Amino acid sequence: MNYLKLREESLKNAVRDDFFKDFAYTQLGNIDFVIGVDCGNGTDTIDNVEISMRRHRNSEISKSRNIDKEDAALFKSLLWAEAKQGKSHDIFESFVQLILTIGKEKTFEKYLPPKYIGAFDAEKFAFIEYHSIQEVFYQNDFNWNVAPSNHETKEFKQLHALCEKQLQENSILFKYATDSKELQKFIKLNFKSNGGASEKIAVTKNNFVFVFQKWTESVKDSIAVDWEKAKNSGIIPADFFLADLLSENNESLKENLYVVLKNTKYEFAKSLDEMGIFTVKSVGFLDNQRDHRKFWAIYERPPKEEYWDYIIGRRDLLVPQDIRERKGSFFTPQIWVEKSQQYLAAVLGENWQDEYYIWDCCAGTGNLLNGLTNYRNVWASTLDKADVDVMVDRIANGWNMFENHIFQFDFLNDDFDKLPEELKKIVNNENKRKKLVIYINPPYAEVGDAKQLTNSGKNKTGVSFTKTREKYSDKIGIATKELFAQFLVRIYKELQCGYIGCFSTLKHLQGPNFHLFRNFFKPKLEQLFLVPANTFDNVKGSFPISFQVWNCQINESFCGKNADVYDKNDLFCGQKNIVSYHGLKTLTDWLIATREFGGDIHLGYMSNRENDFQGNNYNYIINNKNQLPNPRGTDLTDRNLIYGCVFLAVKQVCNVTWLNNRDQFLFPNDGWQKDEEFQYDCLVFSLFHGQNKISSENGINHWIPFTEGEVGCKNAFKSDFMSNFIRDFLAGKIDVSAAPQHDGIFALIAENRHSEHSEESKRDVSHSLNMTKDAVEPTEGSVKHAVEPTACRQFSPAAQAVYDAGLELWRYYHAQKNANPDASFYDIRKYFQGETNGRMNATSEDEKYTALIQDLRGKMKVLAAKIAVKVYKYGFLK
Predict the structure, then answer these.
(1) Which residue from 25, 23, 3 is spatially nearest to 14, judged by alpha carbons?
(2) Structural domains present in the chain
(3) What distance in Å separates the CA atoms of residue 303 and residue 309, rounded to the nearest whole number?
(4) pLDDT tens by residue, 261-301
(5) Closest residue by Cα to residue 685 from 659, 658, 650
(6) What are phi and psi of 301, to 5 degrees?
(7) Which SS3 state, helix, strand or coil, does residue 404 take?
(8) Does residue 818 contact residue 807 with C-beta atoms inside 8 Å?
(9) What pLDDT sits at residue 828?
(10) Is pTM, for the whole model, over 0.85?
């Protein structure tokens, strides 16, 4: 019992041995003390539906030892707890740290929640039922992205204040010195050491949210219902789940639900049928109820009657994510709340809070209004009644906001006649309206997202279908897919307020699809700053979120603005020029124009899907477009090769960052055409870059930059185009700058340039390519010209270093017994690295190859940095 001298790990082991020896023990993420039972047949598992059909491969887990990650799939949690060594710890702070850990990792979505959570140290052990705190995890506006162990953060203190009353009133505390027997009895009564292999899983206040998530995955799609019509009427999948859960023998036990289960069908409430939402009164199943039966064979229903009212009352915890996004904005970190108010003050004056009215019309729980001082002039509205209740509760706990300035309002659908009288007077008075500041962090939900592009997600259909969208879709076009754009356009056009202070992405300022929006939305942009998006809760992408201050009293089309840039720690990084790109031709336009050049030799196909940094993974060279299901790009020929190499290099040399990933690549100025060294650099870069996916398996490989003699190949290549082309390029026989005025991209240099090169000059060219004199002489398949070269050019040192490293790689490959004479750079990498499930492995077991490819990649980075400077110089990027 003397735990005081033990370190934390030893303390956990001692407490487990003394009080939980009949249970299995593991860790789930950063929850470091987890007690539960093994369910060897998999009925009480993390993924119950899938694992219920399998058996554990090994013998039953010993209850006295830890279980590994694989065993955890057959593990039912009874307790998640936070441990602290010593006895000087505030037990409630330990609970808050545990809650932050659970919320940050969303453990409740991955594992069946336990009956209890706990906190203990060397003196005491406390428990509280999970359901008492579970609603904390579903706050709209809370930043979970903080270190749980740091008890000094604003978030920790905010959560402590929110949970303190619950913890004080509902936690059960035992001290080892005086309550040891009572603790043992409590554990015996409330924790069952039998895994219950043949029992169904009971649905309780603690786990009904988790069970609903599994029901959504397993049953929802088997129900023959139009989910969009249902959602438009206020019916969500949770209503079908509740009809299932609160039923016996497939008959719902409560009649006052929105949906009730009647054996093999669901019936809708009469009021909904009268509204004409559904043309039928009931719906059935698409699979003869197979998935439904399978799911409810695992979970027990109905739950204990004492839980019914609680579960029905917490229907809000079962609202789908897209609707949660629709209801409110992402949490705004306090660091950016304060920064935004500084920028508002810079525009409106030091006394702006006394001189202006402020309305946050998508307030969530009022996080954005923290730090304001004159709440007499502040209003907050939100779509969700639950958020209104939270703000009212905040007032009861010391927030200085006025309760009658908080109200429920659907800004994208409701009429302004529904506003509180005091605010309505401001909106209806032109002079007062000019003193109204709309201060918002609107929701970023849209109909589609990046997951669609990779076939890993579905459209959020219906999210943006509002009265505002219907009213303005013909004026701002596809921009109405974005909810934040709908907020801005209604504020600007219908409120005609003084100023807008708004957090959002940069789509409305830079996106090509927003040109109609920019033509319609014309307040003057006074101030702008950018911060990393992943500093906002629930935002995972690496892109900038901006805060803009718009002056609605001045009309001015947005063309560009210098934005202040701050890193995640609020350190000023400088300025970035944000431009609209309206009327500017793109790099894609530039490459497409080369199709007119024609060509005699087909070299490959340049795939190009997007024109910004986000699309760089879709930019690569392959043999032909037939390799792609939906090809978008340009054929590469002997007449536009350099253009293609410049295109690939320009898009790949600059690293993608959170700050530039929305930047558009542009039609360059003519400077690059006179810069021969830049052209050579791009050519070499493209030959040895991983996005060059030319393969001899898919056609003739024209991309071998060396001769057979140089690499030690014992057979003739099917094509020596590239080595001959490089020779002629360096010899000055190919003039890219002449392309717009002459026939084809590789026009001959003016006829008055005569052959002045001696054999010595040719040897210089040969030397720069590590070629022999014989290799310089024209061979069949070379690029032929009517004139001799006029100058002896050489690769830049950076390009030469890459070229030399590539040559060593080719030589090592051709030293292999089964080397393919026509192998490409891609083929060589594939040979040494191998494939797994059709994808090239990242590494190789061949040590020499590994050293050679690492050397090549290191020199490619040097070359990329050199090219990147000229990407901006020649206008490929702003």
Answers:
(1) 3
(2) 8-190 (no CATH), 201-319 (no CATH), 327-579 (3.40.50.150), 588-795+867-872 (no CATH)
(3) 11
(4) 999 998 886 545 444 455 567 889 999 898 898 888 778 88
(5) 650
(6) -140, 150
(7) helix
(8) no
(9) 97
(10) no
